[in-house]
Amino acid sequence: MKLKTSIILSTITMATASSAFANPVWDLYVGATVGAGAETVFADDENKTNAAQSFGAMFGVDIPAFRIEAEYNYLHETDLYAHLALVNAYFKMPSTVVKPYLGIGVGLVFDGENEKAHIDFDTTAAYQAMLGVTLDVPALPFKFDVEGRAIYMPDVYKFADIEPDILHYEARIKIRYIF
């Protein structure tokens, strides 16, 4: 009887101890991003392109096949600036250290201004697409992303019956801290 009891207790102890030390399937993360590229304003058959930069922060969940994150972006070019809030989904290719991914996002332009004309932006939708790679350093709790990104913001403000669209495209670097 003691042998059966000790075997049962040993089995239960090993099963619970191994699950307590197992890695979770998903990771929470926070991160920061910086990018540089260009912004084109499409208004009534007139296109204007200027150099632009962006800064952002994100919070998300990394699951083996995909990532979901909430992101804030500040975009600035010569005459315009915009604040965006977006929800992104990334689909990752299985790999070891270098992991390619494809992403999409949707959100809002919630503040912005055409500084040259002193016109505030309307709250409008924003859409984005991303293509990049994640560099995963196994010994560190950080992941580095290098990506190309395009953000489309339709009808951001109204000026003399013209409602311009903005296309912001850039190269971006992210650093994510995994909890």
Give short descriptive properties of this protein.
179 residues; 9 strands; mainly beta
Topology:
Elements: H1 2-20, E1 27-43, E2 46-63, E3 66-77, E4 80-92, E5 98-114, E6 119-120, E7 124-136, E8 142-153, E9 165-178
Antiparallel strand pairs: 1-2, 1-9, 2-3, 3-4, 4-5, 5-6, 5-7, 7-8, 8-9
- Strands, count: 9
Distance between the termini: 46 Å
- Could you list the spans in which at least 5 consecutive residues all have pLDDT below 50? none
Specify the overall morphology.
elongated
Q: What profile does the largest beta sheet have?
A: 8 strands, antiparallel, barrel
Strand order of the largest sheet: 1-2-3-4-5-7-8-9
Number of helices: 1
- Binned, the helix content reads 10-25%
Order of helices and strands: HEEEEEEEEE
Rg, Å, rounded? 23 Å
Q: What fraction strand?
A: over 45%
Kindly state the mean pLDDT as a whole number? 89
Q: Look at the helices and sheets and give the structural class.
A: mainly beta
